[in-house]
Amino acid sequence: MWNASKCNLCGDCLTKCLYIDYDKDRAARDINALMKGENAEILGRCVTCCACREYCPTGADPFDLILKMMEKHKSFPIKPEAVGFFSMASSVPNQIMKGQPGKPILSLCVMEMSLPPDAIGGQMFDGLTIAKGGDYFCYVGYVHAGLETPVAENARKFIDNIAGLGDEIIFLHDDCYAMVDAKVKDYGIKVPFRYMHILEYMRNYLRDNKSKITRLGKKAAYQRPCASRYTPAKDVFVDEIFELIGVERPQRKYERETALCCTGAFVKVYPQQAAEMQAKNVEDAINCGADALITLCPLCDRVLRKPTTERGLRKIYVTDLVRMALGEKPWPA
Is the dihedral of CA 239, 274, 319, 250 positive or negative? Predict the structure, then answer.
């Protein structure tokens, strides 16, 4: 949540932004205007990637300020059908596939439609209860429509619905994890269940089943989702998973704090800029010698299928990558 008392107008939030070219004075001027509730140029240029939240050295959370002002001034040129998608998501029929008693519940939110085939099959997920549908939609995606209110208004309902599933929840969708690990704190909501990210779950499984792993001996670039800006500490799980399965994560320009958005958030709002960013991202992965680009967010996976294919770069969903090391899937030709 935005905390004006922590902001010293250093400008890092906008001077580090990969989608604009601001100097410190220009950044400070825009943030100062937003603090006064006024409109500012950044509101018409923000792509809602959330990165400025992580760039801020004092923890003031400038993205929250930008988001609230975008909603106030209606400055994000989102198309009506895009907002309609989020409304539709909350009405997706629920389905609970019962697993073995005593095992955790895996929540898919409403993202199954964007997952590759059989993305949650195999031994890692054997016996888990699977929950999916509108009751488990986390609403965090609304930030990519320049809207904070729907997230705040539905946070309690989301937590209550998830709590009704059981005592231990695994979240596949990075947005859902951002809600329970970060956003609910803004709203003063306590989480009444144990939870973990799917990366942590897979890391734990690999630790417990090292004898089943065949190290892959590959290099792979990792596509970090925008929602990870809310929970950057879990990046260590990616590093450990890669180490356990014998995949090198080579250094590249656009990763970790300097990761590029997949552009799914703004591809229909700023299509030319999105195409340029996709090209930069894929080219960067190729230049670092990666054998594949690994995705975590189902939307990232769907959006990046075409640009990676066009450049001859393998695109692999993270669960599939782990299952390759467990001998359940082949490395793609």
Answer: negative
